[in-house]
Amino acid sequence: MIATMILMMMVSGSQAADLRWGTNAHEFLMDEAFSYESPACLEQLKKGSADVDAFEHQFSLELSYQHAMRAPYQSVETARTKMLAFIAQAYKDAREALARGDADTSCFQRGRGLHPIQDSTSPVHEGFQVWDPYLNPLQILDHGDQPFSKETLEALRADPPRLQRTIDLMRETDTAGMLAPH
Ligand SMILES: [Zn+2]
């Protein structure tokens, strides 16, 4: 366990790094899906998504659902339920921020809520794959910005149907999320 944490820190450097599409891929997806938003909002959308990948969150198996994965002891159904609750809470916060005129916070919370949706189409996440770098440290190298990552911006752009599916899912989630429940 200690060895794995050290490996994660070595490969991660000072930036967040693992449970995600690479940083560039996350930012590219926001630009593509929400090109109609203001530059200020787009910046907050990206910050919100990056917040979910923050380095201090990288060691938790329990929070794998925030990246559309699951802990080894969770079922797919448990992880999906937790992920949907996480998204719903972020959009509740986004709607409340907007209602009080805080557009920046609203866009930031939308970015947080969209993060698991972005991750959900990654080849090394989709279908709620198990995240267990303590048992399988080499798994780290497939992810995020790592040397053998399967989720770089290049990988995403080389797969147009996957890219389009991700953008569609992000827009659908965002539209539904910003509709206040009646
Ligand atoms: Zn992630």
Q: How would you briefly describe this protein structure?
A:
The protein has seven helices and no strands.
Write the layout of secondary structure elements.
Elements: H1 2-12, H2 23-33, H3 39-52, H4 76-99, H5 103-120, H6 153-157, H7 160-178
Helix pairs in contact: 2-3, 2-7, 3-5, 4-5, 5-7
Zinc ion is lined by residues 19-20, 52-53, 67, 115, 119.
Following the backbone from N to C, one meets helices and strands in this order, namely HHHHHHH
Tell me the overall shape: globular
Q: What hetero molecules are in the model?
A: zinc ion
Tell me the total number of β-strands: 0
Number of helical segments with 4 or more residues: 7
Instruction: Tell me the structural class.
Output: mainly alpha
Please describe the biggest sheet, giving its number of strands, its sense, and whether it closes into a barrel. none
Rounded to an integer, what's the Rg over CA atoms?
A: 16 Å
Query: Low-confidence spans: pLDDT under 50, at least 5 residues?
Result: 10-19
Mean pLDDT metric: 87
Distance between the termini: 47 Å
Number of domains: 1
Strand content: under 5%
> Roughly how much helix do the residues carry, as a percent range?
55-70%
